[in-house]
Predict the structure.
Amino acid sequence: MQTLTGGQAVVKALAAQGVKVVFGIPGVHNLDIYDALIDEPRIEHIVVRHEQAASFMADGYARATGNPGVLLLITGPGLTNALTGIGQAYSDSSPLLVISSQTESTLADKERGTLHELRDQLGVVRPVTLWNRRINRIADIAPSIAEAMDCLRRGRPRPIHLEIPTDVLEGTAPVQVPAPGTETAPAACLRPGPDPALVRRAAALLARATKPLIIAGGGCVSSDAGAALAAVSELLQAPIVLTANGKGCIADDHPLVLGNLSYDDALRTLLSECDGLLAVGTRFSAMNTRGFSWPVPRQLVHFDVDAAELSRNYPAAVAVPSDARLGLESLLTALGDLVTTPRAPRSEEVAAIRATVFPGDLTAGTWETRALAAIRAALGPNDILVNDMTMLSYAAQRYYPVLRPRTFMAPRGYGTLGFSYPAALGAQVGRPDARVLSISGDGGFLFTGVELCTAAQYNLPVVALIVNNGGYGVVKRNQMRRFNRSVDVDLHTPDYMKLAEAFGVAAERIAGVEDLPAALTRAFAARRPYVIEMPEPNQL
């Protein structure tokens, strides 16, 4: 047992949990943590220019590595600045550990005018966290961090928040730091293994199906379920539909992968004919199902790590609370006893459906698919594409071929503008070996584009592709479609070449999609922060 300050206890506990990097901004209320970081060589700190970007960076780091992203924030404005990114991580089930300060214990929640005071800070954060708590004793800091990290690694990956009053951070006390691997998470946090009886029922339903279908979501990525998913699909000869967050859990070029068909009549036909649907690691969100308009069959088998998601949006004939990989592995074993003769191959059927939905040659399609073809050619299978809420990114969710897990990111659900660039920086920190490309519109990039300064400070060689349409182009399209006029969507935008130069970042402006392949080659060869500005061909 060691005598430590509260700030030292935070840092010692993070290091014991194998945390290698944290994101944040030092402030008057968390200086004890930052002082302790100086003496901990195992942890790198990335200082950002705005806490919202810190939360996006931690999210990008978590998605790229599978390890929890860690945020250090001050109470009040530091935490509320980060709430948008924390909300995005909550929506997309991404594991973040958020450690914030709190005003002095005797003044917290008293509304007595303390600096950075936020009334009911825990209540403010509660809607976007798995759980959160105030730590009132130095001795509880390390065990709470160990419990949180255990939950993040072994449960549904959603943000957890711990707040620590300044007097607790400043004080000293004997501290016992739990050893790495110590299991402290409550049962409610753990990824459940499937109930064998439910698995047998699921296997019986699917084995009877003559036209089975599989829908795989983000849970298949977070649990590394790709191999088991492929094995079940091949045994049943069941085509696989991927949600946007499920892209990459199995390679898009697998002969039974249909891809992301969320908005296609072909999917409605498949669902209407399906007599056995297996959904794994997806919650059938309103976005994925076009407002719950999918004709999901009654013969639905639903596996999800979070029991609360089962039958929430569509009733399941068999609902199985289970980690995706563990559930699929158990299902494969049970099916092996029931499916004893090879099924007729459906790869040709899948190829025919894909041919009606996706262009056979991306380079011969729209400007978006031609840009995506250039991006796919520039990135290797293990390189990373990070998206924002912009037209090219929407096309990427449908058309971009993803070949490995954790190489494709998009801000689904919460749908936050400004996600892409800082998330890409976090991904680059976590995967320094990878090429990382960020796609943004000019409107979205300006939400967090100041983090060019962070990229320059740490020489993070992320390439930022800014597709410039002079404003909020997606919103303008919606205004024109609904009202045949628009307002406040045409923006004054900066000279991105001069902006990048001011931050010490390399940049070039290209004339159009035809110049993108060569520009990407130059950008990635530079191995430094780089901006490519490209005009959107279809400006309104």
